[in-house]
Structure formats: C-alpha cells, structure tokens
Structures
1.
Amino acid sequence: MTRICLHLARPRRRRAFATAAWILLAGAALARAQDAAAPRLPVTEADRRAVLAQALKDFESAAALKSHSSDDARRLYDAARAGFQALIDSGIVNGRLYYNLANAQLRLGDVGRAIANYRRALRLIPGDVQAQKNLDFARKLCEVRFRKPASSAMMETLFFWHFSTSTAARTRAALAAYVLFWLLALAARMAPRRLPALTWLIVAIGALALVVGASAAWDIAHSDARAGVLIADDVTLRKGNGAYYEPQLEQSLPRGVEFDLIETRTDVDGNPWLHIRLPDDKEGWLPADQAELI
C-alpha cells in the first residue's frame, strides 16, 4: 500500500511542477510581448529626425484626404499624434512641437489636450499668431461659456494691454523704456537750458517703464501658479476631495474647460483630487485623472 501511495503521488507532483513551469513561461512570454508593444522613444538625433519627418508626413497625408473624419484620416492623425508625443516624451522641449501635437489632437476631437498643448506652445513661442488663433478656435469648441465676475471683466477692459500681450513682450518693452529714460535724462542734463517738453517726455517714459515693468513682474511672480484643462467629458465638480461629496454645480463639465489649480489632496482610498477655480471664480474638486495640468 505504501508503494502504491508513493506511486500515485509522483504524477501529482509532476503535474504541479509542469503547471508552475507553464505559468513562468507564459509570464515571460507576456512580458516580452509587452516590451515589444511598448513604444520606443527616439534617442539619437537621427531617430528624432526620422520620427518627426514621419509624423509630419502622416499629418499631411491625413489633411490631404477628402474626409478628415474618415477611418483612414483618423488613423493617420493618430500616428502623427503618437510621433509628436514620442518626441516630447524623449525630452524635447519645443514650442512648434507642442503646436503640432495640439493640431493632431484637435483633428482627433481631443479638445482638452489640444488646448493644453496650445498653451504650452505659447509659453515657448509667446505671441505666435497661428498658435493663438488655433487656441481661440479650440476654446470655441468647448460647450460651456463662463461669465466672469464684473470686477474681472472691468480689469481686463482697463488693462487690455496686459492681457493681450505676452510677458516676454512686456519685459522687452519695459527694458527699452528704461534705457530710453536714462538716455533722455542724460541728454536733458547735458542740454544748455531746461526744456519743459523734454522733461515731460522723460517723466512719461519713466512712468511707462514702471507700469509695464510692474505688469511683467506680476506675471513672473505668479508664473508658479498651475493651470489645467479638463480632458474628460461629464466631469462632476464636487464640494470635497472624494466621490462621496455632493456635486458643487448642477451641471457636469465637458472637456476643454480651463481652470486654475488651488491645491491637491487624496481621498480615503489614496486617489489624488484637484481643488480648482473656474473662470467664473467658482471652486470645486475633481479626480486628477480627469484633467491635465499645464
């Protein structure tokens, strides 16, 4: 009986060993398949040039099709998007690259990410007319319009030059006015007699340098404030950092809504939530994976 028991136990052990070996082999094969499927980031300069050339070619090929919403067009736009994103993920920081990525995302209907990347592009190429034009167009596709508070609207009307120009442009203007102020002050000091018109001109240019410089300094001081865009549809803004809190607004928010980040917290399960401020100054919380910070 003992021999029979031992004889019956061996096949079970062999089957157990075979099962374990099969699981290990299947796991290794799955890992190799995942590595092969994972996109490879371009490392060398030649690789990056090749990826960029292919992405631009894919985008132009899609744009040349009669229907931009056809399956072939979407496949080409998505290939272009993947190429531009791979270049950014490889460490390239370039305004034109973000601009091209945003164009591909906009053609694919990904309005939220397109707005985010147009804004990233304008940070690197401030004042670019085409990037600003495309950003304005993408913003019009957002289904929600926010009415800004009267105080904010009045500020934007009075200081339209502050909101319609880039920080870099105002910085250059302030520096130019500052240099001109001192050149004119030196000329006035060396003049044989006092000229009232020159004095008033010096005062005006000095005031211009001060005001424009303060405007640029304000932007620089607040440049650390994070902004973001919703990248999901039907986002429910809540009164606290968790799905168990009541909704803050009666309606949900679509992708493309822009906001300012106030703070970040986690819920009871450790999931990150964002405390945001909307353009109409209303505040609320949303899951971090439903938005993209700029």
2.
Amino acid sequence: PTTSQKQLRLAFFCFFVAIMSVRCDLINSAKEYFQDSGKKVKPVAQENKSAPAASPSPGVPTAKPSEHKATSVNVLARVGNWTITVEEFNERLNALKEAVPDFDTSSLDAKKLVLETLVRQQLLVSEAEKVGLANQKDIQAAVDEFRRTLIVQETVKNLVRDIKVSDEEASAFYEAQKTVLVEPVQWHVRSLVIDSQLKANELSTQILQGGDFAEIAKQNSIGDNAAQGGDLGFIAEAPFAEMQNAIAPLNVGEVSGVFKGPQGFYIVKVEEKKGGTPIPFEDLKKDIIDNQMMLKQQQAILDHVEKLKGETKVEIKEDLL
C-alpha cells in the first residue's frame, strides 16, 4: 500500500478502536448496573443522625470498581482507579478482528496503538466523571436507552434461539412458489414508431403480409433506433407500460398490433426470448431457509408480545399524540 493508503487505514483504525471501546465500556457498565442493582439494600435507620458514619471494619473490604478484581500480575494498564487486564485487552482485539478481518492483531505496533487509544479515552472519561458530565440528563437517558435495548436484544435472542427451518420445509416452500421462482425473462425486441395512426396501420398490414420488419423500420420509423431496424436489443422491461403490455403475450417471431406511445404510434416484434425457466432448488435453498427463518422468528416475537399484552395492563392514550 502507498503511504497515503497506510495513513487512511491508520485513521480509520483509530476511529474504529474508539467506537469499539465505547461499545465495550457500555456493555461493562450495563453488566455492573445489573450486578449492583441486585445488591442494593435499604439503609438501617440511626437514632443519632448526627453521629459520624462508621469507618469500614478492618476485615471488610470497601466497594471497588469491578476492574479491581484484576490482580497486579495481569493488569496491562492502569489509569487512576481504572484498569484493563490482558484478558480484557485480548477480548477487544478479538472484537476488532471480527469487524475488520484484514487487521493484523498479532502486530506489536498495532497492539500498542490500540492500548494507547484506550488509555487516552479513559483519561477523557475520568476527567468527564470528575466534572459531572456523566450525570448529565442526556447521558443518563442514553445509558437508560442502551440498557433497554440490551435487555430487548437478549430477550429476543432467547425467544428465537431454538427456531429452525428444515430442508423439508424449504423444499415445500419452493414447490409452492415454483411458478414465480424463475429466471428473469428478457425479450429481444424491434420497434417501429410512426407519427400517424393511419400510416402505422398500413405498415402493420405490410408486416403481417410478410414484409421485413427491420427494413420497414429503417425506411419509415421515427424512433431513435430506426437506423438499426428498430432493434432495442434484449430488455427485461420495456421503457413504458403500453409497450410492456404489448410485448408480454408475444411469442418469438410474433408482431403486436398498433398502440399509442410517447413518440407516436408503435408496433413491436419479439425476435428472441430467454429466461423464464425455474431456478434450481439448490441455488435458492440457503436464501429460502434464511427468509423462512426470519419470518418464523418475527412471528415468534409477535406471538410473545401478544401473550404479554394479555397478561399485562396496557394503557395507550392516542389522543395525546
């Protein structure tokens, strides 16, 4: 790669690491939130409210961030009270490798870059927490929305975990839809365009009596392809609806009647036709299974939501919208 390409890749990489870091931190924060929420207890009322808070007992450790479960041996970096272990760092490298398969996570320089980016990010996060940015209403709302999204994702994952589509189901769907699961039809078409309906009718008669369509088009058509005998080549769809309606019922070698179009009065002839044959099941099997799987999953989710609606009081005031 050129120097500019390397710089571009580096810039993209730095940006991506930052994004992945935020994602991982959000997930860790969510996990801590759920863990801590289960441990909250009501404080014991004290008779003497003016008494100073009791100091932690020597044998009872004070609460520390979950990162401090790491031992000093496997701590890769520390920023204030925040740490990242070798295992956690490798998890982030693996996530990066999944998103960017070409990225060489075994490179020492790349690892240093990732680590430096994480350290810089944590410095900014720590500073933001000190000045109270983490308590801002919009940030709290975003964290709550992320928590809701995470819960829904996990719930849906559990709902659809065991849903499968068998080969027999895929085959049955294919057989039921075989008539529409075909190769796209293409027509090799010639067209003749005349500004007078009377003349168009006369030329139509000549063609039906055995006149050469291409020669008649060269001599009389006002269409853009007149010099090529009105040859439009292979088309999967005509340029306007009236022409498509005229072409669709024609067999190879047949000529349409006169019909109105954008430039005047038209006559078309089908020279060749291809496509329209059934696509083999094996060529469609994976797509059918994926599609049917998605439909099954959607239905399972909808059914579960309807079940919850029946078990839960739900009030919606649409007049307030």
